[in-house]
């Protein structure tokens, strides 16, 4: 196999192109030949050097000759040491190109030392010594040619430095005889290089041919092994029988299907010794016409094993087309039945939780509704949806989210009675079907409420998910059925879903039973959502600002608050429209609009007048990709100093493992934005997280401040928050201060920043500007 040009380019040290495994192996063999034969030319080289030194001893200084010989010996020993180290390394650790370079450097240095002999020992006045020099150099180069030609450019690296110095001496000598000798040297060099190149091609072809033969032998063995493996391990039973119907060979699967040993099955006559005449008839048909078929429950004659199977019989023909035997492919229907069961499970059960899926639920519920109409009893459907599941899934990853769904499903099954069904509808939505209740409607409503609350209690316990301890609550809506003679599956699920939606509206982790009036509320909320979208597009929203004061009564900042004046319903409570916005993607658009308005106000008021402005950001908005970039863009667009902006986050941002959100907080801090934790004390934050977050401010929730003078528990909580914040070096703002008694209590406990109706109500931006100017 000739060496391709691309291979030559690689071997010539200049090829950055990718090298195929075959070429890499070729180069590896070539380099190995260089090192494998190195000791022979090196030993011959040293011996020739000793003889040359002996011939030159009477003419040249001993110091010169010994020094040259020592140099040659050092170079030779170094090359042998390199070869020794090369052979010690395993093939996997040898970087062939690097070792090829090392060898080439060694050959070049050795050639240079030999070339020095052509300079130092050249003497035309002593023909005998000149002849000795020429013979030794010619012998060394000829030997190098034979041992270095496995890589074509290595031989010239040794030959040319060896011969060119003597050629130069002859040309400089200037006599006709010297020129004649020079011509001989040139011819000799040309011959050496030509032969070296030819040897390189012969060696490369031999290596390539050997590698190709080895590769083909390997492929042939692998092919034979594959065919044998296919025969032995194919999932179908394979049986080979001869012209008389005797079994010649079979694979393990065939033995497994028929329940027989190989010794007993081989030699069995399928035409005469099989009781089932359909089998012998199929074999006889295959031997006669080429094909046969059998299907049924087969009783093995040797083991008596009953197996549902089918067999395809095909004739085997020789080169003349004569039938010389046959082969049978046997399929065990047992596996097909199992596959049908798997298909059924995939069609009717959720693969993640192994609970019944929507399809099985709908079929079962439809049948149950018909049964309840017939017997006059009631059934119960509970619709569950996990609160904040999307946040957990996005922040901790789908693996943790899937594990949460699996653990919740196991808890659901533990809560089920005989005959009840728990199904996964989709995503984080589950349905529990209680097919039959025995009491009257009023009693069963009470019972259904208690069942739903018991289920809520069981499901809200802490989950241990891959090192994360997470508390997840469901919102549960339930309905009895049938409520009317016309109720179908869609009506029942819609009623339960509506009740679940109302449970979420009530604040999540709630239980709610279906009432017909709920549909009106759902319709109203949908209408309000559409109206809110129009409000955003038609500038019905406005920004109000509530001042924040320090202990001396000075305004140190304001909080931006969103307000909506509906053209028909008037002012809509923020608690209403913010909740609607958070249930959809509108909250992101609303808060982006609010952030832009706040930055616009900061551009109108200097820092001396209004040092800082706070704006609330929801968890959904904060965890959106590109949030930090969006804040940066708004600040840059308005030219606002980032230190004048405070972003208020709720405690839900501190859910366990919310690493991406924490990183966003650090990004905002690096930008220069201040961070505050709003409504502190109402969520599920922990001191472990609190001390790790880059917070500038805590805001005590108004629910604690409002009852300071009447509730000792609230007072204790406020005192604890103030002491903790002081220890952590975090500023505290008390929200909802409405009277002097609350203010005095907070001042006496070390609180120095306040916000509430006792000082100022939220006001439009123009009113704020007048207040600050006064």
The number of helices is 28
Question: What number of structural domains do the residues give?
Answer: 4
- Helix percentage: 55-70%
Average pLDDT rating: 84
Any idea of the CATH class of the largest domain?
Alpha Beta
Named at the architecture level, the CATH assignment of the largest domain is Alpha-Beta Barrel
Q: Count of DSSP E strands?
A: 22
Beta-strand residue fraction: 15-25%
Within the CATH hierarchy, at the fold level, what is the topology of the largest domain? TIM Barrel
SSE layout:
Layout: H1 5-11, H2 21-36, H3 39-56, H4 62-88, H5 96-120, H6 127-148, H7 154-173, H8 176-233, E1 237-242, E2 247-250, H9 252-258, H10 262-265, H11 277-289, E3 291-299, E4 306-317, E5 323-332, H12 333-348, H13 358-375, E6 378-386, H14 389-396, H15 398-415, E7 421-426, E8 429-437, H16 441-459, E9 463-465, E10 468-470, E11 474-481, H17 489-505, E12 511-513, H18 518-537, E13 541-550, E14 555-566, E15 570-572, H19 574-582, H20 586-604, E16 613-616, H21 619-622, H22 627-638, E17 645-650, H23 659-671, E18 674-680, H24 687-690, E19 697-700, H25 702-705, H26 712-728, E20 731-734, H27 740-748, E21 753-754, E22 763-764, H28 765-773
Parallel strand pairs: 11-12, 14-16, 16-17, 17-18, 18-19, 19-20
Antiparallel strand pairs: 1-2, 1-5, 3-4, 4-5, 6-8, 6-11, 7-8, 9-10, 13-14, 13-21, 13-22, 14-15
Helix pairs in contact: 2-5, 2-8, 3-4, 3-6, 4-5, 5-7, 6-7, 6-8, 7-8, 14-15, 19-20, 20-22
């Amino acid at each position: 196999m000739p060496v391709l040009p691309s291979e030559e380019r690689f071997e010539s040290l200049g090829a950055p192109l990718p090298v195929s495994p075959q070429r890499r192996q070729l180069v590896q063999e070539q380099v190995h030949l260089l090192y494998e034969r190195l000791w022979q030319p090196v030993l011959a080289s040293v011996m020739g050097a000793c003889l040359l030194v002996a011939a030159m001893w009477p003419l040249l200084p001993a110091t010169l000759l010994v020094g040259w010989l020592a140099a040659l010996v050092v170079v030779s020993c170094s090359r042998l040491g390199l070869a020794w180290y090369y052979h010690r390394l395993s093939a996997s650790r040898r970087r062939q190109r690097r070792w090829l370079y090392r060898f080439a450097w060694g050959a070049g240095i050795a050639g240079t030392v030999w070339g020095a002999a052509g300079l130092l020992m050249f003497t035309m006045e002593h023909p005998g010594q000149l002849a000795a020099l020429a013979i030794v150099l010619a012998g060394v180069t000829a030997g190098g040619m034979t041992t270095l030609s496995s890589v074509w450019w290595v031989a010239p690296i040794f030959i040319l430095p060896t011969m060119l110095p003597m050629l130069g001496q002859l040309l400089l000598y200037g006599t006709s005889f010297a020129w004649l000798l020079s011509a001989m040297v040139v011819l000799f060099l040309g011959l050496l290089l030509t032969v070296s190149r030819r040897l390189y091609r012969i060696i490369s072809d031999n290596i390539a041919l050997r590698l190709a033969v080895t590769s083909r032998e390997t492929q042939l063995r692998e092919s034979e092994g594959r065919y044998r493996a296919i025969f032995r391990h194919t999932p179908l039973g394979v049986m080979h029988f001869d012209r008389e119907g005797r079994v010649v060979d079979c694979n393990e699967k065939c033995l497994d299907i028929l329940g027989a040993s190989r010794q007993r099955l081989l030699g069995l006559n399928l035409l005469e010794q099989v009781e089932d005449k359909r089998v012998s008839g199929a074999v006889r048909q295959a031997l006669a016409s080429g094909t046969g078929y059998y299907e049924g429950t087969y009783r093995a004659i040797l083991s008596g094993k009953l197996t549902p199977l089918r067999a395809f019989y095909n004739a085997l023909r020789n080169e003349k087309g004569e039938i010389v035997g046959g082969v049978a492919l046997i399929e065990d229907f047992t596996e097909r039945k199992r596959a049908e069961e798997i298909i059924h499970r995939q069609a009717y059960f959720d693969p993640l939780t192994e609970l019944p899926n929507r399809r099985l639920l709908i079929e079962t519920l439809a049948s149950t509704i018909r049964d309840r109409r017939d017997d006059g009893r009631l059934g119960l459907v509970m619709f569950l949806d996990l609160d904040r599941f999307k946040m957990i899934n996005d922040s901790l990853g789908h693996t943790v989210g899937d594990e949460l769904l699996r653990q919740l499903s196991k808890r659901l099954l533990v809560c089920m009675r005989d005959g009840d069904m728990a199904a996964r509808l989709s995503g984080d939505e589950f349905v529990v079907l209680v097919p039959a209740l025995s009491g009257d409607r009023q009693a069963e409503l009470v019972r259904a409420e208690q069942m739903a609350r018991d289920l809520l209690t069981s499901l809200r316990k802490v989950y241990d998910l891959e090192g994360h301890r997470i508390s997840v609550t469901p919102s549960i809506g339930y309905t009895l059925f049938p409520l009317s003679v016309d109720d179908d599956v869609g009506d029942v699920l819609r009623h339960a879903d509506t009740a679940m939606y109302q449970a979420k509206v009530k604040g999540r982790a709630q239980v709610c039973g279906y009432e017909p009036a709920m549909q009106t509320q759902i319709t109203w909320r949908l209408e309000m959502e559409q109206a809110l979208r129009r409000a955003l597009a038609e500038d019905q929203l406005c920004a109000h600002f509530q001042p924040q004061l320090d202990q001396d009564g000075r305004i140190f900042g304001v909080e931006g608050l969103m307000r909506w004046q509906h053209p028909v319903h008037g002012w809509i409570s923020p608690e209403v429209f913010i909740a609607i916005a958070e249930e959809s993607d509108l909250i992101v658009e609303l808060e982006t609009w609010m952030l832009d308005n706040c930055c616009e106000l900061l551009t109108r008021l200097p820092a001396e007048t209004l040092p800082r402005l706070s704006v609330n950001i929801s968890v959904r908005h904060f965890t959106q990709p590109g949030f930090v970039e969006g804040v940066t863009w708004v600040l840059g667009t308005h030219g606002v100093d980032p230190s004048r902006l405070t972003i208020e986050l709720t405690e839900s941002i501190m859910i366990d493992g919310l690493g991406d959100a924490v990183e966003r907080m650090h990004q905002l801090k690096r930008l220069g934005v201040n961070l505050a934790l709003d409504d502190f004390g109402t969520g599920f934050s922990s001191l472990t997280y609190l001390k790790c977050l880059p917070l500038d401010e805590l805001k005590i929730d108004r629910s604690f401040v409002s009852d300071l003078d009447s509730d000792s528990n609230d007072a204790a909580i406020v005192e604890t928050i103030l002491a903790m914040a002081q220890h952590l070096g975090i500023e505290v703002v008390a929200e909802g201060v409405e009277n002097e008694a609350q203010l005095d209590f907070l001042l006496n406990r070390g609180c120095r920043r306040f916000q509430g109706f006792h000082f100022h109500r939220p006001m439009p931006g123009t009113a704020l500007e007048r207040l600050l100017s006064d």
